[in-house]
Amino acid sequence: MRTTSTSLGLTVLRVVLGVVFIAHGAQKFAQGLPGVTRGFAGMGVPLAEVAAPVVAGLELVGGVLLVLGVASRVVAVLLAVDMVVAGFLAHLANGFFSQDGGFEYVLVLAAGSIAVALTGAGRYSVDALVARRARERRGGQEPVAA
User: Fold this and answer.
1) By three-state DSSP, how is residue 6 classified?
2) Which one of 14, 47, 59, 99 is separated from 4 by 20 to 30 angstroms, measured CA to CA?
3) pLDDT, tens digit, for every residue of 35-83?
């Protein structure tokens, strides 16, 4: 069983990550996908014309889903992959610090996403509400933590 503080911590992590990803996805759409595609191509992203709208959509929609706590584990895995790829393709050569274009920032976003993928969305999420309702329909109780 999760404690209230654990559930609150997961909620804070999930919502903050979601807001950051929403901002980055919206920024890509605001810049215009042709410009993002050119930027991706310049960084050596394979299939930049496909990757740009996929990444922009994933970050925007995935961020919204994280904030709400919907399909959180799957979304978090996809966002972690997004950040790992960005780290290798766009940031690794610039060193560690984000102020120099390094991988520091995407590393933190990837780690936070992995944490959500491993733990789930927490008690205060749509995922938890759906799971509770499914258990009630089956007449089951909440599982006891190991």
Assistant:
1) helix
2) 59
3) 999 999 999 899 999 999 999 999 999 999 999 999 999 999 999 999 9
